[in-house]
């Protein structure tokens, strides 16, 4: 039997669950089991648990068939626990390093008490760590083991179960279980503490309590479910009634009850406005029914609130709370005035447009900071024209890029009056990056974030761990992300990352990337047209080389000897290079360009056409690999600086261990792969298949249609994802040529 059983209830935490599990599995103490309870989670949490359980036999997964809530999920895990002690860990929190060893050592040193209480810290998205405000209670001098009567002040610790280890036979003997509903920790915490004869303390932070920016916290949810607090304290006092030997705790627990009721009343964002009076009167009844003889109210303002409850003086309480709100409103108006003055810099014209009604049939598109008409927004634009031709489609484009816009596209130049009018009045705003900070999200507007890649490198809040890679203002970043209504995902891998690193209140659409539809649906004519536009003759082998940006390099210098590349691979091979323009004017390189052996495609407006034209892709850390994989053509990872890149920028998986095909870390190795044809072998094909199944999960050629139907047409029944093994993709250049010759 293990020493410790960790019960982990799981519900809608796919972005945080791996970190939680890793924090347990990475402990130096190994004498534990994890009982993970999937509370019928609607996201990918259950699959994550199953994957971890396959890799580690200490993890036991329970899949509930219906959502039962936190308390009953914990009960389900408790029933399966076999350890000497039971700990509860919420699935978005983590253990600190060495926590379990410290807990086990303290349990042994104190001769296995019934309850061990340990410390925690609150962690925030911006990196802040705030200590437990009552950590002092864990530092007091005295006996190592004691009862609550000797240290009653421990009742003032936060009413939580996950900062304690409970001896399992003690839990069984007392019959402790978790009730349903909100505030389920209160009955368990109070009843266990007053029942335990032997309690010990561990003055060490063992749990990192995540303060999620959005969601996951009932205390930030406006609901009548907060009335559950009355049932929870009914259970506490029923327990007292059943245990006359615990009568001394009526006074202290009465005080905890009243404080809890007042907290629910006073904190904004809990009770619906039309339920506040009902809650107060119910709290007042409990107050009078449970008032202990000889009870003394607290001093000061808190005591006056106790008196209001005792008298059921709701009107008086409202007046007091209104006075507080007035003071808060004054401060809020001051802040609003400041914000208005800042927005004044946007111009009076924009302000006037913001006061006009939204145009329900106007859609404003932008891509890559308004530099082009491309990527996912362009694919959505085309599908919108097909399915909803009544909608007017406008693109925001910078003045210096306006000349590159395809014919027939309506454009507003960024910064112009037309631009600000469109930003202010368009019902729909579509972008693959964020709009500028100066753009105001209006009530009723719909912001669609399409993204522009699958992340290998760290993104969003995860970049805080790699400060050398960015000087981003993360608070401003999240303010921009707060405007999103929808976030598009090409695979479940991305979904989990986006929801964690951009923790805002948007809806994820697992539709696939619209820009990749053409890679599925294109035929031989489109492939041949793409090659002809680049001047690629029939029979020419074309390698598309797409290295990504490196934060530690000032510009683009391809780590390839282009002359050697051309010399060793012969005249029938062309290298398409997409990156920044080459530095320097080597006569030999210029000669290679003139002969067509090297084609600089950095300025090509549609990268999807380059994908169709290329026989294979050579890249490093670019998200191009994830898109090109849709074509099921060879991919070569040329990563001469993997150690540096992964250390400076951070990555979500090891590309050397999980590549989409062949891997080369030296130029000689790369040239040998290309010259010998070893880049396209059964082994590399198998790697690519595994890669495609993971990262091309939803790219079946219908992504744009799903997005348009869901976002613009309001449909909820969308075309289902075509099973992976039933999909097709565009033909290779060789297949396209063969089809033409047959015709």
From TrEMBL:
CDD domains: Glyco_tranf_GTA_type. Residues 5-112 form the Glycosyltransferase 2-like domain. It is found in: Cell membrane. InterPro entries: Glycerophosphate_synth, Glyco_trans_2-like, Nucleotide-diphossugar_trans, TagF_C, TagF_N, Teichoic_Acid_Biosynth. The keyword Cell membrane applies. It is a peripheral membrane protein. The keyword Transcription does not apply. Transmembrane segments: none annotated. Keywords: Cell membrane, Membrane, Teichoic acid biosynthesis, Transferase. It comes from the Bacteria. Belongs to the CDP-glycerol glycerophosphotransferase family. This is Bifunctional glycosyltransferase/CDP-glycerol:glycerophosphate glycerophosphotransferase. It comes from Streptomyces hyderabadensis. The lineage of its organism: Bacteria, Bacillati, Actinomycetota, Actinomycetes, Kitasatosporales.
